[in-house]
Write a structure and sequence with these properties.
alpha/beta; two-stranded parallel ribbon; about 30% helix; 14 strands; elongated; Purple Acid Phosphatase, chain A, domain 2; Flavocytochrome C3, Chain A, domain 2
Amino acid sequence: MRRERKNVILVDTGDLLHSRSSLHSPHAPKLSEFRADLYLKCYNLMGYDAFTPGELDLSLGVKELLRMSKKAKFPFLAANLLDNKSRKPIFRSYLVKEVGGIKVGILGLISRRLSLKNSPGEKENFHIADPVETARQIVADLKNKQCQAIAVLGHMDVDEQEMLAQAVPGIQFILSGHVPHFQLDPMTVQDTQIFIAGSRGENLGQVDFLMEGNKPQSRFRLVSLTTNFADHPQVLEWVNQYKTQLQSLQQVPPRPAPSRPRAGVTPQVIIPLTPLFLGEKSCLPCHKKHYQHWSNTAHARAYQTLIAKNKTTDPLCLACHTTGYGAPLFPKGPLENVQCEACHGPGEGHSDRERRFPPVTQDQCLNCHNPANSPNFNFATYLEKIRHPK
């Protein structure tokens, strides 16, 4: 079933089919498969018109992305992602749609700063061409097709979008991808408006087009996707199926921890062993003040957030709301909440002073407090909330 729509164009500017959080999971390939299948079915149902991939989508590999695109009833647009042999685009370059009596040309562009290195032979087989040069050619073609408005689905940084607007006359609108923070008002660069709706699907960017004489005008607003919007019955069924799939992954045991040699037995091959996670109770005997302080922080209640939102089986959430997710564990499974070892590292060997913990740095925090998950994160401010007493 595909919902029939009039005077509406639905597009997505990337980082849809894969999640940065799933990189923490030992089940990353399956997670991507389940996630992509869910989103593509939902987008097909809603009648989406176009999608331009971002760096997270490309991290799956171009060939895998091509395979996924076969499930979509809408085109993937990436005019400057080229095959090295044919020098032709891997996906479609653009499409032309009429909305409200206005003929709109839509092209997809991705940043040259994105990397093609995740699958063997990726760089040898494909490359990302200069988006400015590519846009110049396609904009000329769209003008020849009598398009009254030209819009770019641009998965690139803000400075690249500004440069594109300055270098290629004729682009009226750029719908921004890759930029995590939304902006209520569009940016204007020369005669081009840049719309930034943010990430994570929390807002829908709505652009209303109208013509004043021969010049297209627009009105941009953000629609917050809150619980005020009722769930579609079919989508709700698919989401429940997705949760069941995630639950099945949780039943797969984690990688076994490296076995320790028995006392008195000298192994013939010495293999460096990864320290194991022991849980916060192992820290309590020596660090009572620290433990008490931690127990009053939000870190100590992180898992409760998942319970409240019915997300306890979602590996994408477990990666940041538990400790040691995806790593060799003891005794079994990830440890609930952001415990001591989430910041300081596995505790095995520390109590007998064989191993000291390294300092906690901002890089460790950014694994979870990234722009998508924690847009207001400030290291100094947040550190004061969790810093232990001396």
